[in-house]
Amino acid sequence: MKRFPFAAFLIIATVRGFLLNFGVYYATRAALGLTFEWSSPVAFITTFVTLFALVIAITKDLPDVEGDRKFQISTLATKLGVRNIAFLGSGLLMVNYVASILAAIYKPQAFNRSLMIPAHTILALILIFQEAISGFYRFIWNLFYAEYLIFPFI
Predict the structure, then answer these.
(1) Which of 1, 34, 53, 72 is 20 to 30 A away from residue 137, measured at CA?
(2) Rounded CA gap, 84 and 80, in Å?
């Protein structure tokens, strides 16, 4: 997948974003004999994770940049630089967190404001103050898992 970043994004976004969230939720409802019912939290987590998948796809080569340069493998990180890719990934994650806060503010009937606003503010602040670019890819996976920890309560 290293040589095909767009394909990597599509696979990650489809599996982690859409199928895992929308697909499993609605397949489970159908298996239980429940009718289709729109779920704002499921739509939220699907959208959130799909954008997150884009960040994972564009930052996945950050830990390997030295080896990629050595073996002349062209990746976004080798083309644009580790720092630039880390900033791009951070910027996209900030869009996710700001959108999450705004969703809680503008759709209080759909989301648990008292959890979504402080949780996403804290995660955004942790992201802002992340210093080491070398561990950035591992760090964003921790943020990814943190979102699933708070999801049942939103």
Answers:
(1) 72
(2) 6
In sequence order, the 6+-apart residues with CB closer than 8 A to the CB of 111 are 40, 41, 44, 103, 104, 154
Q: Is the pTM of this model over 0.85?
A: yes
Mean pLDDT, range 55-81, rounded to an integer? 90
Total domain count, the chain: 1
Q: How far apart are CA 100 and CA 83, in angstroms?
A: 26
Question: Considering only 22-31, 126-135, 142-151, which range has the smallest mean pLDDT?
Answer: 126-135
Residue whose C-alpha is closest to residue 59's, from 79, 71, 76, 73: 76
Cα 63 from Cα 78, distance rounded (Å): 11
Q: Calculate the alpha carbon distances from 124 to 15, 100, 101, 128 in Å.
A: 25, 10, 10, 6
User: How many residues are given for the chain?
Assistant: 154
Residue 118's pLDDT band (cuts 50, 70, 90): very high
On whether the CB atoms of residues 8 and 57 are closer than 8 A, the answer is: yes
d(CA 130, CA 128): 6
Measured over all CA atoms, what is the biggest interatomic distance in the chain, rounded to whole angstroms?
55
